[in-house]
């Protein structure tokens, strides 16, 4: 059976992973830095896309709120799934 240097291997793996993470943190810009470096026309497109996304999310939240049953009224039949019906309908 071969004698593999597990301790050195683990140390090297941890070292390389740490170096890679530090290199990534040093070189990759944050979202704010990236936004500030954009050209004004691209920044306008990003703002428009962000506003559209927020509007869609608000619309979806309104639809979910309109379809959800009131929290103070609990109907046991509406909570049960259809397949959980025990008596067969003939």
UniProtKB/TrEMBL annotation:
Pfam families: CBP4. It is a single-pass membrane protein. It comes from the Eukaryota. It is found in: Mitochondrion inner membrane. GO terms for cellular component: mitochondrial inner membrane. Residues 62-90 are annotated as: Disordered. Keywords: Chaperone, Membrane, Mitochondrion, Mitochondrion inner membrane, Transmembrane, Transmembrane helix. InterPro entries: Cbp4 (IPR012420). Belongs to the CBP4 family. Essential for the assembly of ubiquinol-cytochrome c reductase. It has a direct effect on the correct occurrence of the Rieske protein, core 4, core 5 and apocytochrome b. This is Assembly factor CBP4. It comes from Lentinula guzmanii.
């Amino acid at each position: 059976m071969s004698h593999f240097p597990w301790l050195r291997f683990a140390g090297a793996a941890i070292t390389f992973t740490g170096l890679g993470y530090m290199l990534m943190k040093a070189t990759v810009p944050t979202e704010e830095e990236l936004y500030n470096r954009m050209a004004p026309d691209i920044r306008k497109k990003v703002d428009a896309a962000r506003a559209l996304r927020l509007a869609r999310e608000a619309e979806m939240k309104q639809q979910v709120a309109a379809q959800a049953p009131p929290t103070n009224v609990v109907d046991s039949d509406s909570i049960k799934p259809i397949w959980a019906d025990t008596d067969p309908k003939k």
